[in-house]
Amino acid sequence: MTLVKPPVASHRRRSANAHRTRIWSGVLVCILFLLPLVWMLLTSFKQQRDIFSSPPSFFFEPTIAQYVDVLTRGGFAGQMLNTVIVAVGASVLSLIAGAMAGYALSRLRIRGAGVIGALILASRGVPPIALAVPMFLVARSLGITDTHITLIIAYCSFIVPYVMWLMRGFFLALPKELEESAMLDGCSRMGAFFRIILPISLPGLLSTFIFSIILAWEELLFALVLTNRNATTFPVAIAGMAGDTENGANWGALAAAGMITVIPVVILALLVQKWLIRGLAEGATKG
What we know:
Blueprint: H1 7-44, H2 48-51, H3 65-71, H4 76-107, H5 113-122, H6 128-142, H7 148-173, H8 177-184, H9 189-200, H10 202-217, H11 221-226, H12 234-241, H13 251-271, H14 273-284
Helix pairs in contact: 1-13, 3-13, 4-7, 4-10, 7-10, 8-9, 10-13, 10-14, 12-13
């Protein structure tokens, strides 16, 4: 007599195998993404002779000379301050404009709202160099090159579409009865937006704000074209390190500079990880 395995047990075994497969696939993807970061971290503590050793050395005498070199370079504090000002300013301005635009496209009866949203999103496909040169010509004619506000406005050109599309998804998932109840109590459309919708959408706003800062923090092209000295950001300084020595690039200093730019973003993400994960989870199931 042949015993037939219960279908429930077979289903549970397949589910368990699929769950383990997903976990190990996620671990593998994380390793692939973290490997360049780990390699950069190791390189930043190596001496020049250890960086070019063949085969690569994983055991070496660490040194902080590369970090000292980067931190003591002229203009380091000003460049980091410029990066913070521009990244935060562009993210805040983009969040304000993008959230209001996303709300309008998700709630108001605008003729061609879908087409408008698609066109705004399609603007992200325009090559940045096609926008950088006209922006430089306009800024030069107005006499506002090498200023924070010029760089902030330039960054908004590629951050606002991203913010608008993300926030539109959050707003679409919220029930319209929330605004209708507020307006029945005498609240205006804008009042309902600021008093009801924005507080509820705080996780989405925070996660979008973090990603906006990351986009602005690492941007190079606009900063390279629109700045010269006063508003130069740290990514421009890193690009300048690649050819500032007679014997070629100082890869140890470049790795140290890269780690210095990564650390603030990692710390920020860790501080708000609870809100960030909540916003990402809600954004993945909404819209």
